[in-house]
Amino acid sequence: MGKTAATVASRTIAVSGYYGFDNSGDEAVLQSILLALEEQGRENGIRFDPIVLSIDPDKTSRVYGVKSAHRMKLAAVLGALRTADGLISGGGSLLQDETGVKTIPYYLAILNIAQWLGKPTFVYSQGIGPVHRRWFYPLIRGTFRKCEYISVRDPESADLLQRMGLPRECIDIVPDPVMGLPLKPDAVVSESDTGTGEPVIGVSVRFWNQDRSELAALARALQNLLVQRPARIRFLPFHLPADEAASEHVISLLDEPYRRYVSIAKDAAHPQDMLAEVGRCQLLIGMRLHSLIYAASQCVPIIGISYDPKIDQFLNRLDMKAAASTSRFDPALFANHALDVLEQSERWKREKAPAIERLKSDAQRPAKQIAQFFKG
Question: CA-based angle 364:190:205, to the nearest 5?
């Protein structure tokens, strides 16, 4: 039963992550966390009032209807953390040094400031690693030991934290928050939006190799696929503007007759709009992690292209392997695999449905733990 307004406690919670950068995956993480906090707060008689640390606080406040503070302005961060009753760090791949040496110190600093101010801190479904510089290990261990709750999105992240010296029993393994992201109430998701009965194949790409060899291989695979079966290719840019440019690069490598089967989703800036786009596909080919998570959550068959261990770690949770990687990509084998998955899509859905439903249910657990902490 719901609580009356008089008995609902209000708690201000700061949220730290890679927010405001126009990355649909990370924005979906934020949207998922906010919705989960709202739902679990309601279940536990608490109204959460989030303050999101964002690179674009005005846009974040406008899109999500929450307070926001500039993540790179110390005074703004201090002000947000002083007024907050606690801090959520996550989700996403925050503690990794693959993209640079400054990322881990930044996110640990936010946690350290909150802890110095006496605020409870919660690690929310993070993907930990890769951490190539072992001198980060004691810094992460020391900060995490002071957290009230630690959750990671895959067993590999828990293994890495354990190697850093954190007890395994203190680490909760949960799904990525986006597994729990619902469609908008008015979203329309049909089996095919081509009007021709041809399958819609969603494709999410990003730049990775300097020579763009993986994108060239994908272009050959897609053309090989179209030679064998009529289909519509729908590119889904998750990080603007870079992914749109990567999509256009792949399209430019297709022979002219095949480009008429291709389009780019250019009006799906909100995470739930992109979720609806993915839900209209009959197959999703993805480099971006959250393209695969979106598709799995909608029970759309997926084929992963691995550029980072996090892709393989998510696929492992569905007992799957990547069909190609940025260093190993056979276009002919890839195209044949895609055709097989399309042909056996109903079987894929039946086989993966139990694991997907489990992941969707468990995605609420961090928010539930945080709500119960404040309730208690």
Answer: 70
pTM score, two decimals? 0.88
- Domain positions in the chain are 5-174, 200-359
Other Cβ atoms less than 10 A from the Cβ of 119: the count is: 18
Please count the other Cβ atoms lying within 10 Å of the Cβ belonging to residue 336.
16
Instruction: Write the Ramachandran bin of 120: left for phi over 0, alpha for psi from -120 to 50, otherwise beta.
Output: beta
Q: How confident is the model at residue 1 (pLDDT cuts 50, 70, 90)?
A: very low
Both structure tokens of 89: 């760090």
Query: What count of Cα atoms within 13 Å lies in the side-chain half-sphere of residue 269?
Result: 10
With contact defined as beta carbons under 8 Å apart, do 29 and 37 qualify? no
* Reported CATH class of domain 5-174: alpha beta
H/E stretch holding 286: strand 283-286
Measure the CA–CA gap between 301 and 282, rounded to whole angstroms: 7
Query: Is residue 298 pLDDT above 50, yes or no?
Result: yes
Q: Position of tokens 């674009």?
A: 56
Same fold, 5-174 and 200-359: yes
Across the chain, how many H-helices and E-strands are there? 14, 13
- Indicate the angle between helix axes 155-164 and 309-317, nearest 10 degrees: 120
d(CA 253, CA 250) in angstroms, rounded, equals: 5
Q: Is residue 367 left, alpha or beta, with left meaning phi > 0 and alpha meaning psi from -120 to 50?
A: alpha
In the three-class reduction of DSSP (H, G, I as helix; E, B as strand; rest coil), residue 96 is classed as coil
Phi, psi of 65, rounded to the nearest 5 degrees: 65, 35
What is the band of 269 on the pLDDT scale with cuts at 50, 70, 90? Answer: confident
Under CATH, what is the fold of the domain 200-359? Rossmann fold (3.40.50)
| pLDDT tens profile 165-217 | 999 999 999 999 999 999 888 766 555 444 568 999 999 999 999 999 999 99
